[in-house]
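Exercise 3.2. Students should predict the tertiary structure of the chain below and write it as structure tokens, then compare their answer with the key that follows.

Predict this chain's 3D structure.
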Amino acid sequence: MGTAVAEWQATLMALALAYLLGSIPFGLLLTRMAGLGDVRQIGSGNIGATNVLRTGNKKLAAATLLLDLGKGFLATFLAVRYFPALAGLVALGVVLGHCFPVWLRFRGGKGVATAAGVCFGLGWPIGLAYAFVWIAILAILRISSLGGMCAAVAAPIAAWVLGNHAAVPWLIAITALVIWLHRANIGRLMNGTEPRIGGGKQA
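Answer key:
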């Protein structure tokens, strides 16, 4: 009984710590520190790198991308290294923290960059597959939302092909979350009104 309780406590603590790390809103913090105001008041109102780019500051957008990716990587890498049985849960927890940060009334980003970090944390080949699909779609079509969703779909497929079967259910959950958060984008993609990077407002 005591062992079971200790395991539950460890599980809940890992989930809470992953969520709290994921909930750090780097895009909002960086734009405020740079004197650019509240990034939620421009463009799509999102705190991710794509919306930070609409401030006109490419360096801040790049920093936001790397930091959001970094928190996903850090949480998952440490879990894989020290608590491998909890790695999948931690991966989901850090993405949930980014998407639903308690500090911002649970209105955060859409999880694409943080999910990329998670994939690298689970294994660099999975991360490379994610990054390749993401960058390829962005380079060819210049549609941020489509690139992110396609990369998220590629992640569990890559994990399965590469033999990391334990990660697949968790990556499927993250993929479902990313796609659900892009539901408005999907509607615009279907009717041909989803803007391209540099072409105007994009949620």
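Discussion points: The chain has one domain: 2-191. The chain has a mean pLDDT of 92.
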